[in-house]
Backbone:
């Protein structure tokens, strides 16, 4: 007996007009735009890297980085700029945090005016600012630009002013994210004084905002050229500028280092931002 | 002498008066609610007791001590906010112990007090949780425990249940009263929810436009309102227009209504006869009767709300539900009745 397998019938699906996939074109366009963006941002970086990593002929090496890092001026100027940046962050925090807190709590109507004032460094070019400072502080009664040290104080104050747009925005966003008034009143009703409220209630809840502002300020100060140059300060900005004028591979290496530092700072901010306040588990009390 | 005294307190913001001539004496351990619509000045008054606002005029004292000009952190007053206001960077235990730490209470004593309060709010195992890990109801319990931790002389609650859903609100309401009675703490509670005020309070202060309209126990406020505002704001109320005949009788359309509360207005004056919906009955009665046509019948569970049209005027009757209740039909002509002692008369607007 022969068993024949039943014929396999392949049913042809009814002809359906293929619908035009909505968004398919826009998807391609999105990819094109993204690729163009990637090229726009990364091509110069790749070219700079190429220059930095091939300082000796066509051989891949870290020679340019070695030369930069072992240059005694690099460490000296970088160290000086780091100290300037830290001092700027402290001054900026001391001015901006109490101001933003007070405006949010007591005079919210002034917020737009304060915002405008903090935005002035975007409008006034650094060169105008520095000439203003020189005119102001080089003649009596405020002639304090006599020594390198005193001029450095002016430099830090100028940097603090330049950091205001970033610092104020960061702090203000942080304050908007928490209910400042109610938290303040709750702490007051529990017996807290103003310094206690700021230190133990407001500051810890602004941690991410303050770090963002601080890191942005750091990034601005570390490579700032105009103000430092005109005030005769031997900081990292003028060092980089000098390097660009006299060498080829070293400035490229320095650029790569700056990028790495900036990206590192941004990554750190992003990491902290993901960690909401209070998510950190504390040690269980016995 | 009363424990908490507000003496001729007034508060002005710019040119407008938020609170006018506020006089109140609260006994120790008493639970008093400030009840009124938005903008009536109840929260402003509470904030003046807390020290967040300074009275423009008047004096506030707690336990005989004048605190009118004292800073909020010097008053020893516990405050619970509508938005919980827990410190997000601290655990539940740290939140509750915050005030004690500021008072430099020892670590062991603080821990013991925190544990005691977490037991009181039925959250003994949540000490290490952060506020964002808790539900709204739990957060408000923690806020209450935090306010109580410092053993305040007066506990202030500013609409603490407004942000919660109905079921949690009911549960927490009972909890607040239980805790208040357990600790025998003088409490001021601000709310716009009359049911909340009635259920919780020893006395209710009804406020309108910055003025105290009436102060009294919930029973008195509801059944014997002294002003038209209190009568209409607290509970539902039928206002039947009429004209005074004599000190006990009002002519309302074709019917004459009697009241046992003497009418002060002279004969011929236009008045309204006030009667609560739950005082009305469908069917003929021995005293006051009105005739109307049923407009709607709404079954609400424990009560059945019947709306009866009398010409252009609408009268609401709340009938207590029972299994043998015979509900009227819509468009059926019915007689409504109520006893003479159930109504009172107020001059028409």
Residues:
């Amino acid at each position: 007996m022969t068993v024949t397998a039943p014929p396999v019938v392949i049913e042809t699906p009814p002809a359906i007009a293929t619908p035009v996939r909505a968004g398919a074109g826009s998807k391609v366009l999105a990819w094109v735009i993204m690729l163009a963006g990637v090229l726009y941002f990364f091509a110069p970086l790749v070219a700079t890297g190429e220059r930095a990593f091939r300082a000796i002929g066509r051989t891949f090496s870290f020679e340019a980085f070695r030369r930069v890092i072992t240059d005694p001026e690099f460490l000296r100027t970088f160290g000086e700029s780091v100290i300037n940046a830290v001092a700027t962050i402290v001054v900026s925090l001391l001015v901006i945090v109490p101001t933003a807190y007070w405006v949010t709590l007591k005079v919210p109507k002034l917020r737009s005016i304060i915002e405008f004032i903090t935005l002035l460094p975007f409008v006034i070019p650094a060169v105008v600012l520095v000439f203003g400072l020189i005119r102001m502080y080089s003649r009596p009664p405020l002639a304090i630009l006599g020594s390198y040290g005193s001029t450095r104080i002016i430099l830090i104050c100028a940097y603090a002013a330049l950091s205001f747009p970033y610092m104020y925005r960061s702090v203000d966003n942080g304050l908007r994210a928490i209910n400042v008034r109610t938290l303040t009143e709750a702490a007051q009703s529990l017996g807290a004084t103003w310094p206690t409220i700021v230190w133990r209630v407001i500051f810890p809840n602004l941690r991410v905002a303050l770090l963002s502002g601080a890191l942005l300020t750091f990034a601005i100060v570390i490579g700032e050229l105009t103000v430092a140059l005109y005030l005769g300060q031997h900081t990292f900005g003028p060092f980089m500028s000098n390097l660009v004028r006299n060498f080829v591979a070293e400035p490229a290496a320095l650029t790569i280092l700056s990028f790495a530092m900036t990206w590192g700072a941004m990554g750190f901010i992003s990491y902290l931002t993901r960690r909401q306040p209070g998510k950190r588990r504390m040690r269980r009390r016995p | 002498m009363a424990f908490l005294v507000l003496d001729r307190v007034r508060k002005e913001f710019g040119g407008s008066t938020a609170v006018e001539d506020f006089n109140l004496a609260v006994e120790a351990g008493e639970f008093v609610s400030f009840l009124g619509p938005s903008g009536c000045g109840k929260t402003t008054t509470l904030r003046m007791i807390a020290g967040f606002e300074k009275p423009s005029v008047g004096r506030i004292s707690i336990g005989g001590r004048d605190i009118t000009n004292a800073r909020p952190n010097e008053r020893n007053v516990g405050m619970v906010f509508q938005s919980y206001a827990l410190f997000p960077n601290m655990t539940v235990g740290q939140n509750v112990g915050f005030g004690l730490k500021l008072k430099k209470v020892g670590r062991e004593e603080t821990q013991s007090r925190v544990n005691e309060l977490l037991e009181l709010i039925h959250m003994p195992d949540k000490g290490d949780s952060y506020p964002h890990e808790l539900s709204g109801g739990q957060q408000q319990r923690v806020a209450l425990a935090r306010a109580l931790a410092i053993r305040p002389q007066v506990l202030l609650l500013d609409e603490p249940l407004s942000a919660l859903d109905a079921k949690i609100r009911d549960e927490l309401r009972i909890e607040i009263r239980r805790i208040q009675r357990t600790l025998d703490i003088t409490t001021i509670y601000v709310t716009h929810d009359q049911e909340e005020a009635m259920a919780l309070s020893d006395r209710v202060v009804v406020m309108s436009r910055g003025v105290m309209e009436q102060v009294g126990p919930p029973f008195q406020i509801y059944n014997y309102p002294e002003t038209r505002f209190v009568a209409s704001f607290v509970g539902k109320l039928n206002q039947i227009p009429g004209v005074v005949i004599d000190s006990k009788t009002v002519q309302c359309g074709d019917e004459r209504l009697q009241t046992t509360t003497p009418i002060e207005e002279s004969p011929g004056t236009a008045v309204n006869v006030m009667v609560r919906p739950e005082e009305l009955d469908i069917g003929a009665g021995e005293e006051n009767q009105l005739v109307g046509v049923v407009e709607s019948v709404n079954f609400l569970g424990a009560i059945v709300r019947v709306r009866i049209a009398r010409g252009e005027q609408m009268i609401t009757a709340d009938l207590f539900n029972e299994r043998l209740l015979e509900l009227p039909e819509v468009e059926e002509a019915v007689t409504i009745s109520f006893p003479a002692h159930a109504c009172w008369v107020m001059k028409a607007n």
Remarks:
- Chain B has two domains: 4-232, 236-347.
- The interface with chain A takes residues 50-52, 71-73, 75-79, 81, 83, 85-91, 93, 98-99, 102-103, 111, 127-128, 130-132, 143, 146-147, 150, 156 of chain B (CB under 8 Å).
